[in-house]
């Protein structure tokens, strides 16, 4: 059985909480190198997930000709460097978001990946969750009719450090919603109106329970989109989420029903439909299967491994990774001009 041989760069929080337990379960994935600047993290990952070896220097992975693919689970400041070097070394790439700080950096990554002929998939985990897959199927099958409006909310606590500011809240967490809107509706974001970007006031952000002082960077954004299918979207993006409030919500309003999708990895999804007379159709109230039937993140990682083995294209691509950069750029333009702005081409 052919296996995809992986090197993993960055064995911190998201690697341990999400990626490595899932990747370890993918039958055709071989965990070869664990790499972190902090030795005990690399060593612990090797022990916990069965890597063959560990290193503190990611060049060891790029030099190893037996390695097919690298996972980049460092913070944003290293993403471009590592993606470009990985592509030059002929390695396929599974990279955490945000993909890049800005359009220029994103373009450099895309050029490097396309010139090398390697795959790059961004870690838009929400689009692979069973609730999201179920929502997409409901929309595709026309069960809620034509999609007319979407309300999307992405909220989280502010990042634990300034790093520097993860490219702002729109790139940090809004990118998940921007990708999911496309995944579920099948439509592209074409126009953006920025109703609101961060307050940029002088109040220390710690006053709001935030750990880092993020004055002068985008903490909150409320964006209004028009999609290529004519539907509209309100997208709320906040770095000010506090415990017990909803981090994630998606409501998809169609001409015949509504899908509510909450915390998709816990499969909290329901949809309601109505007859033409406006009365509810009880027969299509539905909930996704419990996620325990499929280990959290398994589908996501298996899709990438299968793509590499079989030459299929079911994973998100480098071009998909670029879309949030384009949307954020349009949002910033809109905020300056006070007008609706078009999302520009690559
Ligand atoms: N839901 C999500 O998709 C989600 C959730 C959390 C974090 N993230 C993203 O994941 C990325 C990592 O976040 P995290 O919270 O795991 O960070 P983290 O700081 O916990 O982990 C990053 C690790 O990378 C290591 N590292 C940094 N530079 C390195 C280098 N040159 N070589 C080898 N190792 C290096 C660090 O030592 C650290 O252990 C960020 O881009 C973040 O935005 C995504």
What is the element layout, followed by pairings?
Elements: E1 4-9, H1 13-25, E2 29-35, H2 39-49, E3 53-55, H3 59-63, E4 69-72, H4 79-88, E5 92-95, H5 103-116, E6 120-122, H6 130-140, E7 147-155, H7 168-185, E8 189-197, E9 220-227, E10 232-238, E11 248-254, E12 257-262, E13 268-274, E14 280-287, H8 298-310, H9 318-337, E15 341-342
Helix pairs in contact: 1-8, 4-5, 5-9, 6-7, 7-9
The chain binds nicotinamide-adenine-dinucleotide (NAD).
Mean of residue pLDDT values:
87
Order of SSEs: EHEHEHEHEHEHEHEEEEEEEHHE
Largest sheet: 9 strands, mixed
Instruction: Give the CATH class of the largest domain.
Output: Alpha Beta
The fourth-level CATH homologous superfamily of the largest domain is: Dihydrodipicolinate Reductase, domain 2
Q: How many individual helices?
A: 9
Instruction: Classify the oligomer.
Output: single chain
| Proper CATH architecture of the largest domain | 2-Layer Sandwich
Number-wise, the strands total: 15
- Alpha carbon gyration radius: 20 Å
Helix content: 25-40%
């Amino acid at each position: 059985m052919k296996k995809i041989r992986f090197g993993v760069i960055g064995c911190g929080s998201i690697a341990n909480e999400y990626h490595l337990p899932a990747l370890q379960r993918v039958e055709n994935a071989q965990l070869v190198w664990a790499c972190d600047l902090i030795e005990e993290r690399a060593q612990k990952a090797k022990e916990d997930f069965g890597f063959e070896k560990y290193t503190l220097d990611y060049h060891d992975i790029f030099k190893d000709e037996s390695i097919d693919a690298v996972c980049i689970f460092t913070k944003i400041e290293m993403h471009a460097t590592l993606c470009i070097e990985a592509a030059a070394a002929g390695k396929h790439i599974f990279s955490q978001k945000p993909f890049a700080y800005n359009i220029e950096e994103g373009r450099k990554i895309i050029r490097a990946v396309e010139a090398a002929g390697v795959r790059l998939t961004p870690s838009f985990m929400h689009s692979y969750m069973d609730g999201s897959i179920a929502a997409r199927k409901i929309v595709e099958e026309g069960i809620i009719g034509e999609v007319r409006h979407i309300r999307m909310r992405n909220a989280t606590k502010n990042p634990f450090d300034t790093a520097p500011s993860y490219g702002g809240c729109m790139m940090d967490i809004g990118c998940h919603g921007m990708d999911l809107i496309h995944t579920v509706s099948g439509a592209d974001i074409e126009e953006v109106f920025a109703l609101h970007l961060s307050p940029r006031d002088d109040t220390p952000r710690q006053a709001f329970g935030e750990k880092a002082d993020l004055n002068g960077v985008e903490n909150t954004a409320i964006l209004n989109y028009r999609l290529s299918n004519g539907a509209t979207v309100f997208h709320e993006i906040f770095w000010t989420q506090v415990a017990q409030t909803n981090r994630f919500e998606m409501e998809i309003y169609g001409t015949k029903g509504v899908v509510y999708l909450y915390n998709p990895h816990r499969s909290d999804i329901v949809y309601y439909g109505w007859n033409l007379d406006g009365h509810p159709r009880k027969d299509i109230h539905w909930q996704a299967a419990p996620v325990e039937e499929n280990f959290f993140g398994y589908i996501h990682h298996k899709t990438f491994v299968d793509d590499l083995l079989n030459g299929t294209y079911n994973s998100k691509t480098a071009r998909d990774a670029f879309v949030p950069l384009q949307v954020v750029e349009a949002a910033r333009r809109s905020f300056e001009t006070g007008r609706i702005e078009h999302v520009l081409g690559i």
